[in-house]
What we know:
- Two copies of one chain form a homodimer.
- Chain A is α/β, with parallel strands linked by helices.
- Chain A is built from nine helices and 16 strands.
- In chain A, the strands form three sheets. An eight-stranded mixed β-sheet of chain A has the order 10-9-8-11-6-12-16-15.
- Chains A and B meet through strand 2, strand 13, strand 15 and strand 16 of A and strand 2, strand 13, strand 15 and strand 16 of B.
Amino acid sequence: xxxxxxxxxxxxxxxxxxxxxxxxxxxxxxxxxxxxxxxxxxxxxxxxxxxxxxxxxxxxxxxxxxxxxxxxxxxxxxxxxxxxxxxxxxxxxxxxxxxxxxxxxxxxxxxxxxxxxxxxxxxxxxxxxxxxxxxxxxxxxxxxxxxxxxxxxxxxxxxxxxxxxxxxxxxxxxxxxxxxxxxxxxxxxxxxxxxxxxxxxxxxxxxxxxxxxxxxxxxxxxxxxxxxxxxxxxxxxxxxxxxxxxxxxxxxxxxxxxxxxxxxxxxxxxxxxxxxxxxxxxxxxxxxxxxxxxxxxxxxxxxxxxxxxxxxxxxxxxxxxxxxxxxxxxxxxxxx
Amino acid sequence: xxxxxxxxxxxxxxxxxxxxxxxxxxxxxxxxxxxxxxxxxxxxxxxxxxxxxxxxxxxxxxxxxxxxxxxxxxxxxxxxxxxxxxxxxxxxxxxxxxxxxxxxxxxxxxxxxxxxxxxxxxxxxxxxxxxxxxxxxxxxxxxxxxxxxxxxxxxxxxxxxxxxxxxxxxxxxxxxxxxxxxxxxxxxxxxxxxxxxxxxxxxxxxxxxxxxxxxxxxxxxxxxxxxxxxxxxxxxxxxxxxxxxxxxxxxxxxxxxxxxxxxxxxxxxxxxxxxxxxxxxxxxxxxxxxxxxxxxxxxxxxxxxxxxxxxxxxxxxxxxxxxxxxxxxxxxxxxx
Lengths: 336, 336
C-alpha cells in the first residue's frame, strides 16, 4: 500500500460518499487533516446542508486530536466551531496539511468561509481534488494562495469530480436524477424485504432530501407503499407515479402523506419542475428512465433466492463508489 | 472516521485479503507500521509462501520511510531484509508500533523469526489480531512480552480469524475448500467473458496455489476449458471433473496439460487426498458442494445482460471481505 497524497484523498473520498444524496443542494465533500509528521489527525465529511462543511468538521476533530481540549466537542454549529477554533488554536495548525475533495469555499453563506478559517489557522498546505465552479463560493484556492499557503490542485480530480456531479448539476441549474434499487446477489428484486435496516434508513434519509420521487404504477399497486422518510423523521417528497392507468386505490398509504403532491402521469415531463429527483423502481422503470438518469445507486444484499431479475437488458456500469454496511453492499454507479 | 487501533488493523486486514488464496500453505497476513506520532509508515502483506512475512515487508517499507536509505529497496529475500535491518536500523524503530493480523512467528522456517526481528529492532508496542495456533510458529507474543515489549492481543480478532481460517484448517490437518464463481450484477453467469483481465489473472494465481480444482461435467463439455495457470505462468492443479457420465472428448484442452492428473468421478470423495481445493462452477455445483465448502469467492462484474442465473436457491451469505479492482467487485463470503 502506497501512503501518498492519493491515499489521504481516497480516505476523504470514501468518507464523503457515505453522505452522497444527503447534502443536497450542497455538495458531498470529504476532508482529511494531516499532522506535521504525516499522521492522520482527522477525516470527516459534510453531512447535510446547513451543517458544518467537511473542512470544519475535520478541523474540529483535528483540533481535539492535537490539544485534547474537549470543550470543542459539543459544538455542532459552524459559526460556533469557527469562533472556537479561531480563539483557541494557539498555533497548533501551523504544520498541518489538509486534503479536501473540493476547493474550500470562499464565501459566507449559512456558514462562514472555510478558506478564511484555513488561512487564519495558519495552515500552509492544502491538497484539493475538484475546483469549485460555483460563482459565489469559488476562489478559495486563490484566497489561500494569496494568504501565502501552497495549494496543490487536481489530486484524484476525476474521482472527486464524480463525487461532485450532483452539485455541479445544481450549479448549472440542471436537475440531478438518480435511480435507486435494492437487489440480492442473484439479481432478484422480489420476494420479501431485501435490504438491511441501515440501508432502508439511508434511503429514507435520501427521500427527505429529494424533492420528487418517481415510482412505477405496478409497484404502487402491488407494494402499496408509503414512500415517506419516517425512518429518519424527514420530510416526504412529492411523488410522480409513472403509469398509463390512473385508477389507483386511494387508500394506498402514499396518497395520505400530508404536505405532499402526488402526480399520476404517463410521461416524465414533470421532472422539469424539480431539481433533485430520485427514482425507485424495477426493470421497467430502469428501461423507461435511462435517458434522464445521471447516477445509479444499488443496495446489494449478499443473499439469493428471490424472484424476478432486476433487468435482463445488456448494460455496463462504472462503479463510482463502493461501501459496505453491516450487511449490504452499497454501489454508486453510472452507465458506461 | 475514528482513527484508532481498529482503523490501522482494518488497513492491515484489507491489504492481507488481496492475497487470500495466494499464500497457501502459509496464512494471509497484513501488517501496518506506525511511527511515534501515529503516522502510517507502511502497510504490507505476505504475498506467497517463501516470500517475506507481512511484518518483514512492512518493516522494510517503514525503514525506507524513516531513513530514505534506498539500499533496502531491492532486497526481496527475507534473510537479506532481516540482515539488512538488523545491521542498519540504528534505533529508528524504537518508538514505532506494529499492527499485525496474526501473532508474529517465533520460529525459523523458510524465513527467520519475525518475533526476534521485532524484538531486536527495539519495537515496544505490538497490536495483534489472531493468535497463532501453529505449534511450531506460535509463542511470538510470549517471546515479545519477555523481551520487554507490550503486546495487545485481540484487536479485531473476529475479522482477523476470518482471514486466517484457511491456515487454521491446514494447521489442523483439515482441507480448505473454496468455491469461486464470476457473475454479473444481474446474477447472470453465461453469455461471454464476465470478469476483467485482472480478475482472471487473480484466479489463475489461485489455481497455481491449489492442489485440486473441481469442475462440473457440463461446464467441461460446453466451455472446453484449459483450467491452468497460464496467465501467471504457474503450475496447473489436478482436476476433478464431477460428472455421472465419463465420456469426454479428450481433445478438450484441460486433458492435455502436462504434469496434471485428471479424475472423472460422480462423488467428491477424491478431495480426501488433497488439502487446498478450489471449485469453479455454476448453480448445480454450488448445490452439490454446499456441505464441503468453507468460503465463497465471487467476482462480480458491474454489468447486466447475460443468460442463466447463478442460483435460484435461497441462500444467505456473510461478506468477509470486499475489494474492487479496476472493474470488478471481489467478495469473499461464507454461508450464514
